[in-house]
Every structure is written in structure tokens, then in C-alpha cells.
Amino acid sequence: MKPFLIQVYVCFLAFKDYIFRQWIMYIPFYSFRKFFIKNTIHSLGENTSFLVGVEFRNGKNISIGNNSIINKKVLLDGRGGKLVIGNDVDIAQETNIWTLEHDVHDDHHKDIGADVIIEDYVWIASRVTILPGVRIGRGAVVASCALVNKDVPPMAIVGGVPAKVLGTRKSALKYKLHYKPWFK
Length: 184
Fold this sequence. Notes:
By secondary structure, this protein is an alpha/beta fold. It has one domain (3-168): Hexapeptide repeat proteins (UDP N-Acetylglucosamine Acyltransferase, domain 1, 3 Solenoid), CATH 2.160.10. It is 16% helix and 27% strand. It is built from 2 helices and 19 strands. The strands form 4 sheets. It has a 7-stranded mixed β-sheet with strand order 2-5-8-13-16-18-19. The chain has a 5-stranded parallel β-sheet with strand order 1-4-7-12-15, with no helix packed on it. Strands 3-6-9-14-17 form a 5-stranded parallel β-sheet, with no helix packed on it. It is globular, with a radius of gyration of 17 Å.
């Protein structure tokens, strides 16, 4: 391909991404957004809800299970590895989940990527940041504003910067999430 055509193609892809992030994901009808989301990410389970303003980065590396809730203004990054979100996962607003970061010790600001796995029944509160290479165990709870930079054991309640175990969740995890607002 000629350099000019490559530039046109890259510009087209960037514009398409802009339209999806800034227009489509803010349309107030969930079923309309879900139509486009299904064609953007690798796999999407049944009965999963996405509220307005969810941002996908390289959605082809993102898989989301059944009955999960992705709240408004959540960033899901699949650029540096796979992002796998299990069943009945509740992710509150303004959470950032990263699979790509920069090596602070590299002279050339090199990228480092790793998978992020969020197992079933995980509850992530608002404004949490999850860094690459983390696995959050089944039934774990992550408190608001936590920075998760290492694995979280199943059923653990973690919080803080960096996140530390604060307690243990005592639940049989028998619920199914089914939040489906019409206009959010």
C-alpha cells in the first residue's frame, strides 16, 4: 500500500473509534449500544449490561461472561493482553482495567502487557484501578478507589493503595445479576 493510502486508512480507523467511543456509547438506549458492542469485543455472554460511556481499547481481546454489569465510564483495555471478565461480575462506575502499562525503568518508555482475569461473582466498587497481570479470585470484593497491582484471593475484601486484604466475604454467592436500565 502507498504511504498516502495507509494514512487515509489509519485516519478512517481512528475516526471510527472516535464515533464509537464518543457517540455510540453515549446513546441512551442499551439495546442499541449492545448491538455495536457485540461486534466490538471478542465474546459477550447473555444478560450483560453496559451503561453509557464504557470505553473499549482493542475489544478483540476482551471477553465478558453472563449476567455481568459494566457501569458508566468504565475503561476496559485489551491492548496488552486478554481481559477476561467472568459471570455475575459487578463493576462500578469510573473503574479502569488496564492490560498495558509502561516500564518505568526502560530508557525508551517500553510497553509491558499482561492478561487480567476477573473471576465469577467479583464486585468492584467505583474508581478502582486494576493493573496488568492481575487475577481477581471468585467472589472477591474490591473497595472504592483501590489500586490493584497483585492477585486478589477468592472471597477476599481488599482496599487501599496498593490494595491489601481487609477481610473475607461471607456469602454463598447464589445471586444472578440482572440490572437492565432502559436509559442509562
